[in-house]
Amino acid sequence: MDSTKQKKILLKTTIILSALVVIGLIIGLTVFFKFRMYTIFTERGSRLYSPSEIRQIKAESENDGQNDFLASMKARLESGTGINPLLREYYSDQFIYTIDGRYYFSPINFELKQNKLDNSNFVKNSDGEIQYTENGVVTSHMGIDISRYQGSIDFSKVKESGVEFAMIRCGYRGYGGGNITDDTSFDTYARDALTNDIKIGAYFFSQAITTEEAVEEANYVIEKLKPYNVEYPVVIDIEEVTAGTSRQESLTNTELTDVVVAFCEQIKNAGYTPMIYSNSRYFAGKLEMERLEDYEKWYAFYADVPYMPYEFSMWQYTNQGTIDGISGDVDLNISFKSW
Description:
Layout: H1 3-43, H2 51-61, H3 66-78, H4 83-90, E1 94-99, E2 102-107, E3 122-124, E4 130-134, E5 137-138, E6 141-146, H5 155-160, E7 165-173, E8 180-182, H6 186-195, E9 199-205, H7 211-225, E10 234-237, H8 253-269, E11 274-278, H9 280-285, E12 296-300, E13 314-321, E14 330-335
Parallel strand pairs: 6-7, 7-9, 9-10, 10-11, 11-12, 12-13
Antiparallel strand pairs: 1-2, 3-4, 4-5, 6-14, 7-8, 13-14
């Protein structure tokens, strides 16, 4: 066999092998992507449906009333009803919350104390402030929560605006280093509020990661409150950190609840009313609510009516309120109790 024939045979062999490799890669990638897509949709509890399957599903739904349900949803969405109110209505046995656009469903524990407030009783007055009424009579109490970020406050004007109570931050634990730090305005705010006949409560932004740290935080708060007549609750503020990494981020639900219980028990033993401040994400998905029945709840939810299945006694309904005597935005609250 001469060298020319050998080169031709070698060239043909190379081309065939290359083609086989390319075909193998195409087959391999196709199988991989099909498997990956299957995995993704299986993980999500769904899959891709072909157009013929979709037509079949629609045809079958006409026989079992599903079309009426879908038509009702469509009509209500077109009329301006948002998707969140619809979901809350249709999944009334679930506490629904969102994180970064993703929906989470937490089964409601109906053995716990339930929210018995009637949403039709919430009204907004001419100043944009929300009140709770019964038989036309306002039964809620107007309040604010403040920290040093509010700057100088004229509490006489705040009182004239109808504010009955002020929840004042007395300190916080850093989410980075974990050090406890004073809120430098607490003493001034507490004295001036009380001087103007505004009742006060206090809150502490917690970043405790052990029960020992929670007790340390509570003892710090108790010491700060000694000079003042604090009638409203003393609160552990549990919420996500938006500008960094929370020390509590890695805690399990049980560990985080241990922290909350330890704080509240220490506050209760000192003669104050303990309270927990948080939002849907925590009350639905991060705290073991069955262990927190004995403590008051302060709920942060920015809307015209609250969405909360469990009993709560205070509601923070906006972080963009305006009150005469305070420059800039302030958190507005109503309390359903008077302490």
